[in-house]
Each structure stands twice: as structure tokens, then as C-alpha cells.
Design goal:
By secondary structure, the protein is of the alpha/beta class. Helices cover 43% and strands 12% of the residues. It has one domain: Alpha/Beta hydrolase fold, catalytic domain (Rossmann fold, 3-Layer(aba) Sandwich). α2 (53-63) links the parallel β1 and β2 (69-71). The protein binds 2-acetamido-2-deoxy-beta-D-glucopyranose (3 copies). Residues 99-100, 103 line the site of one 2-acetamido-2-deoxy-beta-D-glucopyranose. One 2-acetamido-2-deoxy-beta-D-glucopyranose (NAG) binds at residues 233-234, 288.
Length: 309
């Protein structure tokens, strides 16, 4: 009797130990099966610049050992990749990236995305147009989701073409050849001429469902677990900086701005922002600093551990 009891107890303890071992090894496994991360660089930058995305890639790999990080490159090399950030039609870029992602078997079970500056609105377009493979979370670092009206300082890192581009944008952002061939014109949003913007912006007005209402865009964006919008409080590159949270200039002038929740885009819920917000999946983060200026510590604790684990 006692022996039987002892045996049962020993068995129970062994079972418990076994469960503990399984739980412990699951933790180890989940530590290394972090979802892949796809990054898209900003204007004037490239996939692999050692002082920007090259470094970020190392930080992510240090934080999540074994994680697969893909930094998007469009073109045969870094020079082409940088040039394409200025001169390759954003719709073509998005299409190219959709096929790169669909073609990458490591992403088949889903991935998290981090967009830097214009790379953020481009990744949003990927989420809206190409639901497979699934994007899980989208982190937008200083993205221009309502566009820009002005290009006061030249990118990060700065690039020699910026001045030339600024001059063209100021005269003819909506000329059809400029729209076709100049990336920054494709998210140029002139508050003095909203109607022209809606009709002629071939990229931004489309993904913001301002030309027509494409329900697919809304349905697809709502598939995200979280949309994380980071705004840089002291941004001197993006005008207006509120665009990083979907705010923008009120129509007819370029001084006063409306906020995300005052925007027609949100109020009419044209792309699902209001619904996401109600469900607590729209995360608004503000940090002090100029465009894309953040510390490694902030990035690791707020973004990587905060959302991408
Ligand atoms: C897809 O993968 C194939 C085989 O690896 C490759 O030949 C092709 O260029 C890839 N396409 C894209 C768009 O990356
Ligand atoms: C809506 O968006 C989807 C995804 O990009 C596209 O396939 C479809 O043609 C679009 N519909 C319209 C009416 O533009
Ligand atoms: C940055 O912006 C924040 C919020 O507007 C402000 O409180 C802070 O003083 C600014 N910092 C600098 C260095 O201008």
C-alpha cells in the first residue's frame, strides 16, 4: 500500500518534472522562433548602409538570436537601390517588393515589418495590396501617411539630389511625368489644392482611398495585429510632422493641422484606422528628436520587445 502510494507520488513528481522541462524547452524554442522582420529604408538611404539599416539589422539580430531579417533592396546593388528611392515609381516598387516577399519561403508564415520614413508608407501599401505572405505588425518610423507639403531638409542621410527634387516638386508635383518618375511627388499632398491631389496623386491618394474606395485596402490593413506609428516630435525634415500620425494641414492653407482623429480618413474610416483604434490596435508613439533619431535602447525596448516578440 505504502509502496504503491510512494510509486504514485514518484510518478506524479516525475510527470511534473517532465512538464516543467517541456515548458522550459518551449520557452527556449519560442525565443528563437521569432517571426522574420522585413525592413524598408527611407529616401537617400539603402538596404545595407552600415550607419543606418545595416546597423539596425545587427541590433535586431543581437536582440533576437536566430531571427531572419530581410532589408529590402530594389535593384542590382546599393547605388541602384538608393536611386530607385528617388526615381522608381512607388507603385512599381511596391509591386516588386510584393513579389520579393511572396518569393521568400522564410516569410511564408508571416512577418513583422518596419518601415523607415517613406519606406513606412510603402510597406503600408504592401499590407493593403499584398496580403500574402501575411504582415503581422507594421511599425512606421516617421512615415508620411498623409504625404508631405515641403521638403525643408534633405533626408537622412542627406543626398545630393534633394535640392533638385525640391525645385521640381515646388513647380510641378502633379505633372504627369513628375508623378510617374519622381517618388516624392507621389506622396506630395498640396493642401491648397486637395482636388488636384486626389485626382492626380498616383500613389498616396490611391492607398488612402481618396480617389475611390477600395474595400480590399481596408480589409487587408485590418488584418494587421497592430499598426504602430512613431512620430518624431522635433522632426525638421517631414512637413508637417503630424503626417507621421495621419494628421495633416487643414484644406486651403499650410499652417493649421488636424490630428489623426479629426481627419476625414479616420472619421469616414476609409482604410480601417478608426476600427483599429477602437480595438486598441493602433499604437501612437511620440518621441523627442529629429527625423529617425532614436537610441538603440529605445528601439530595443519600445519597438522590438514592445511589439515584435
Ligand atoms: C524568385 O525566385 C526565383 C528563384 O529563386 C528567382 O529566379 C526570381 O528572380 C525571384 N523573383 C523575385 C521577384 O525576386
Ligand atoms: C483594389 O485593390 C486590390 C489590391 O491591390 C486590387 O487587386 C483591385 O484591383 C483594386 N480594385 C479597384 C477597383 O481598384
Ligand atoms: C521636442 O518636441 C517636444 C514636444 O513638442 C518638446 O517638448 C521639446 O522641448 C522639443 N525638444 C527640442 C530639443 O526642441
Amino acid at each position: 500500500m505504502f509502496v504503491l502510494f510512494l510509486k504514485a507520488t514518484v510518478t506524479r513528481i516525475l510527470n511534473m518534472l517532465l512538464i516543467l522541462v517541456i515548458v522550459a524547452s518551449c520557452n527556449i524554442v519560442s525565443g528563437t522562433t521569432i517571426k522574420p522582420i522585413v525592413m524598408w529604408h527611407g529616401m537617400g538611404d539603402s538596404c545595407c548602409n552600415p550607419i543606418s539599416l545595416g546597423r539596425i539589422k545587427l541590433i535586431i539580430e543581437d536582440t533576437f538570436p536566430g531571427v531572419y531579417v530581410k532589408s529590402i533592396k530594389i535593384g542590382a546593388n546599393i547605388i541602384e537601390d538608393t536611386e530607385n528611392g528617388f526615381f522608381l515609381n512607388a507603385n512599381v516598387q511596391v509591386e516588386e517588393v510584393c513579389s520579393q516577399l511572396a518569393n521568400d519561403s522564410k516569410l511564408a508564415d508571416g512577418y513583422n515589418a518596419i518601415g523607415f520614413s517613406q519606406g513606412a508608407q510603402f510597406l503600408r501599401a504592401v499590407a493593403q495590396r499584398c496580403p500574402s505572405p501575411p504582415m503581422i505588425n507594421l511599425v512606421s518610423l516617421g512615415g508620411q501617411h498623409q504625404g508631405v507639403y515641403g521638403l525643408p531638409n534633405c533626408g537622412y542621410p542627406a543626398h545630393k539630389w534633394c535640392d533638385y527634387i525640391r525645385k521640381i516638386l515646388n513647380v510641378g508635383a502633379y505633372w504627369s511625368w513628375v508623378q510617374r518618375e519622381l517618388v516624392q511627388a507621389e506622396y506630395w499632398h498640396d493642401p491648397l489644392n486637395e482636388e488636384e491631389y486626389r485626382q492626380r496623386s498616383i500613389f498616396l491618394a490611391d492607398i488612402n482611398n481618396e480617389r475611390q474606395l477600395n474595400e480590399t485596402y481596408r480589409t487587408n490593413l485590418l488584418k494587421l495585429k497592430n499598426l504602430i506609428l512613431v512620430r518624431f516630435n522635433n522632426d525638421t525634415i517631414v512637413e508637417p510632422r503630424e503626417t507621421e500620425w495621419f494628421g495633416f494641414y487643414r484644406p486651403g492653407q499650410a499652417k493649421e493641422v488636424y490630428s489623426l482623429r479629426e481627419s476625414p480618413l479616420y472619421i469616414e474610416d476609409r482604410i480601417g484606422l478608426k476600427q483599429m483604434d477602437k480595438e486598441g490596435r493602433l499604437k501612437l508613439i511620440a518621441i523627442d528628436g529629429n527625423h529617425l533619431q532614436f537610441s538603440e535602447e529605445w528601439f530595443v525596448s519600445t519597438i522590438l520587445h514592445g511589439f515584435l516578440e
